[in-house]
Design goal:
The protein is built from 17 helices and 12 strands. With 409 residues, the chain is α/β, with parallel strands linked by helices. Helix 10 crosses helix 13.
Length: 409
């Protein structure tokens, strides 16, 4: 399948001139803000991508100060919500970002969160969503109950996909929603992290779970079966040339066991082509972080078409419809390429990911938009959201209604 088939912007639309841009003063606005990031973490975990990103923003002067509050710091607190409010007061936070807080499993008290709005700094609150959340009955969005109180405290929501999920989030939060795609964790997979290919003898690599719902009423059930069918088709075609990693594939001849998250780039780097799998959401622009992470291996990626995703992933990405036959053919085409050119394509993709799709990029992107929202009436009418992951403001302008909900300007 040719690249771009799943795009939601036509070739004619690509040629339209741009008349607007994201607000040039947003960076200056952000430089005066004090940021507090509230993020999930595990006990003993030293650094995550967003913690490194916050430190980078402070060290580079892109925010006046950055502070991090981890869920592990709150685990023994009598009231995690009160602890967050107190920390925001102590550091004088003007911007507060709950970064993929749904992963913490900590339910915050809505009455306590309302105290944030009454702090002397009158902080602006952002909440990011790092999951597809499209596993509800008949494909409807399903937001975890423990996360809803946090969403309702938001002045701005960042979501990894748009479509029905964005509509649902805008209603749940009663706030603007913007696209904020998945990204590569700087701490685990950034450009300064050396990669030595794993000792694996395989041309084709797949890393992902075989799990699926047991309820046919949930779309997750059917997408899981589609992923399994695609991997089994690769097994039938490539045999021992295929290496499959992840839970649930026991009994598949090419299964090589599970692999630690931190090792997936080394595993991907050992192959000639990586199949990213069939995603568990086809809402516009969605991809899990695995697609971005595995592209840093320097090995060409075969990705399943999702509307708009071709505007985010590198142009050297190969595309498939996700049906077993088309997955096999797409992988074959990559393997038939000249090896030198194939390697060049993989390295080009890696460079694009490092240039646009790290967690540091996402945190700065989200906080710049949050700073614009905080400035309110001071922002020129018609200002576009700051979305550098597209590489061009003209792309944002042409599809503003697709990449935002309730955008105030």
């Amino acid at each position: 399948m040719e690249r771009g088939t799943g795009s939601i912007v036509t070739q004619a639309e690509r040629a339209l001139p741009s008349t607007q841009s994201s607000y040039d003063g947003a960076r200056a606005l952000l430089a005066g803000e004090t940021l507090l990031v509230v993020t999930p973490s595990r006990a003993g975990e030293k650094e995550t991508g967003v913690i490194k990103a916050a430190r980078t923003l402070e060290a580079s002067g892109r925010v006046a100060a950055a502070h991090v509050l981890r869920s592990s710091d709150l685990s023994r607190a009598a009231s995690p919500s009160e602890s967050i409010v107190q920390r925001a007061f102590d550091v004088g936070a003007t911007l507060i970002v709950f970064w993929v807080w749904h992963a913490s499993r900590i339910q915050l008290e809505p009455d306590v969160l309302k105290k944030l709005a009454r702090l002397p700094t009158l902080p602006t609150v952002g909440v990011t969503v790092g999951d597809a959340f499209m596993s509800g009955y008949l494909g409807r969005p399903e937001i975890p109950r423990h996360f809803r109180s946090t969403l309702r405290a938001a002045d701005l929501v960042g979501a990894t996909s748009m479509g029905r999920l964005a509509d649902h989030l805008a209603g749940e939060a009663n706030a603007p929603v913007m696209l904020l795609p998945s990204a590569v964790c700087d701490a685990q997979f950034g450009p300064d992290v050396p990669v030595t290919p794993a000792a694996i003898d395989a041309d084709v690599v797949f890393i992902g779970a075989a799990s699926h719902s047991k309820n046919p009423g949930r779309r997750y059930y059917w997408l899981g079966r589609q992923r399994q069918a695609a991997v089994r088709a690769l097994q039938a075609r490539f045999g021992s040339r295929l290496a499959v990693f992840g839970p649930g594939w026991q009994g598949l001849p090419s299964w090589r066991g599970e692999v630690d998250r931190a090792e997936q780039v080394r595993v991907a780097a050992a192959g000639q082509v990586v199949f990213s799998g069939v995603p568990f959401s086809f809402e516009p622009f969605y991809a899990s972080d695995r697609s971005f992470i595995q592209a840093t291996s320097g090995v060409p990626l075969v990705e399943t078409v999702v509307p708009g995703l071709d505007q985010l992933l590198p142009s050297s990405t190969s595309w498939t419809t996700g049906t077993p036959r088309d997955v096999v053919r797409s992988v074959e085409r990559v393997l038939e390429e000249d090896p030198v050119r194939r390697r060049e394509r993989g390295l080009e993709a890696r460079d694009v990911i490092f240039a646009r799709h790290l967690t540091t990029h996402r945190l700065e992107t989200f906080t710049r938009n949050l700073a614009m929202l905080r400035a309110g009436a001071g922002i020129p009418r018609g200002t576009l959201p700051f979305m550098p992951f597209f590489g061009d403001d003209a792309v944002v302008e042409r599809q503003l209604q697709l990449v935002t909900r309730r955008w105030p300007w």
